[in-house]
Amino acid sequence: MNDKKQQLLKASIELFAAEGFWNTPTAKIARHAGVATGTLFNYFPSKDALINAVYVELKHEWREHVLAGYPEEADVKSRLEHIWFRNIDWGVNHFDHYSLTEQLRMADVLSDETIRHQNEELTFLYKVVCDGFDQAIFKEMDIDYFNRIVLAELDATVRYAVAFEIKDMALTKLIMTSIDILWNGIAR
Amino acid sequence: MNDKKQQLLKASIELFAAEGFWNTPTAKIARHAGVATGTLFNYFPSKDALINAVYVELKHEWREHVLAGYPEEADVKSRLEHIWFRNIDWGVNHFDHYSLTEQLRMADVLSDETIRHQNEELTFLYKVVCDGFDQAIFKEMDIDYFNRIVLAELDATVRYAVAFEIKDMALTKLIMTSIDILWNGIAR
DNA sequence: CCAATATTTGACTGATTAGTCAATCGCCAA
DNA sequence: TTGGCGATTGACTAATCAGTCAAATATTGG
Question: In this predicted structure, what is the pLDDT of residue A3?
Answer without folding.
Answer: 87
